[in-house]
Amino acid sequence: MAYVISIANEKGGVAKTTTTVSLGGAIAEVGQRVLLIDLDAQANMSLALGFEPGKVANTIVSAFLENRPLSALWQPSQVENLSVIPSNSEMGLVERMLPTRPAYEETLRRALQSEPIPFDFILIDCPPFLGAVTFNALTASNLLIMPTQAEYFSIYALRNMMSLIRRVRAKSNPRLTYRLLLTMFDRRNRIHRTMNEQLHTTFESGVLTSLIEIDTKLRESPIAGVPIMLHAPKSRSSLQYRALAQEIIDYVKET
Amino acid sequence: MAYVISIANEKGGVAKTTTTVSLGGAIAEVGQRVLLIDLDAQANMSLALGFEPGKVANTIVSAFLENRPLSALWQPSQVENLSVIPSNSEMGLVERMLPTRPAYEETLRRALQSEPIPFDFILIDCPPFLGAVTFNALTASNLLIMPTQAEYFSIYALRNMMSLIRRVRAKSNPRLTYRLLLTMFDRRNRIHRTMNEQLHTTFESGVLTSLIEIDTKLRESPIAGVPIMLHAPKSRSSLQYRALAQEIIDYVKET
Ligand SMILES: Nc1ncnc2c1ncn2[C@@H]1O[C@H](COP(=O)(O)OP(=O)(O)OP(=O)(O)O)[C@@H](O)[C@H]1O
Ligand SMILES: Nc1ncnc2c1ncn2[C@@H]1O[C@H](COP(=O)(O)OP(=O)(O)OP(=O)(O)O)[C@@H](O)[C@H]1O
Ligand SMILES: [Mg+2]
Ligand SMILES: [Mg+2]
Q1: Which residue from A61, A7, A4 is spatially nearest to A34, judged by alpha carbons?
Q2: Chain A contact probe: residue of B18, B88, B152, B220 with most A CBs at under 10 A
Q3: How far is CA B252 from its chain centroid?
Q4: Which of these, A124, B1, B145, B209, is most buried using a 10 Å CB contact count?
Q5: pLDDT tens, B188-235?
């Protein structure tokens, strides 16, 4: 049974996509079979792995609009052990259509339960919008990872995220757990240091030990169409995302 | 007649809210009467001006759901010449409800045309989602400013933005113009410099001359609940947003 992780946060630009691609790459690197699903109309995750969203034949859109099985949609990436279901701008249409259907929030979970899934981990990149699509991802997930910048708006966004978690647990997925991940962290910045301490005090073990610092190599790897550990294997961000992968693998073993 | 500017981009975290508050503050500082409207369920613009989204009596939500006149909703801020219509998380409901109504994309424009508007400029902060709410803002606007980081995903987002502009012009607002604004720019970063040149080559006069560089003071001013020119009047970002305000005022005079 695959372990399903959603990477979501209403706050924009907090490294949701960068984390999905980098964490997925790091888990695949240690031999786990990983599937990445792109649920964002921006299709940045697809782009970051070399898929041109306008030209891809099969996207996740047809799992929602035509009930096609996921096994007809996933395809290998350039990375060993890493497969992808890309997205495109039609995901905007899925957001509008889904709420008209009964039990729409179960669509993705039903798709995952309706056939054998030959993966150990599934990571889902979510859009910066708490609508029907993100609700679907959380309903289908064991764990929600919320990438968070140590900045005022980002911390404020956690309030809406916590209320979404409560709603998902009440309606469709009582066992959903969550963890915060500090991203784009700058140790020299006083605000980042203060906000980071505030997060650890408020959320305690809800904050992952691994932390991702600012690293311009992460701006380069999407251009190369590969995860950071292929683009710059010895970079600080490769090491930090590998440490995160280990922390997540250990967390899953314990639960 | 007020000049209406939408600040929008599907890409998250590109400084839409920071630009709305800072540009609004800079235009108010030179004596123009400014109204800021928050259309994002995150309500970051409201928060950045000291309004606690959960506690505000009147928000923009009631202009959409109860047809209340805007004059019943705007209120003064701590800044001279600057008034605000705040938002709250119910804007998520507006996004779901609006498309069920005929001519829903005209709601905001109709509200602006239905009573005297005692402002010279109206700036609208949009969510990172190209749905009915953002469509409403663009239908009501003279100008769309797209804050853009000089990074790969951000530049790719312009493709969806240009197709949205075409759709708005075809459906409801043929005279909508646009301008790109480079934000969070780091002159020392090779990627930023290369992408900036690429943007100027591709978009030519579509890119504003003013450019906003990285300045940690912009992370502090929302905590203080005031625009940057009140929090740090001599900071680099205050000077750069003042230059932007002048460029926009000159642009409006010419058109
Ligand atoms: N640790 C980091 N250091 C430097 N740049 C980073 C880092 N993480 C992400 N970035 C860059 O910051 C920008 C925002 O990251 P990303 O697009 O992954 O965020 P997101 O949360 O997925 O955004 P959206 O809300 O639009 O989906 C991107 O240009 C990315 O390359
Ligand atoms: N020039 C700058 N220098 C440093 N930090 C900045 C700058 N502009 C914005 N920021 C910070 O970057 C983060 C993102 O900015 P902001 O929230 O304004 O973007 P946004 O596009 O409104 O995001 P969203 O897509 O979530 O609405 C914020 O924490 C903000 O304080
Ligand atoms: Mg993303
Ligand atoms: Mg914003």
Answers
A1: A4
A2: B152
A3: 16
A4: A124
A5: 999 999 999 999 999 999 999 999 999 999 999 999 999 999 999 999
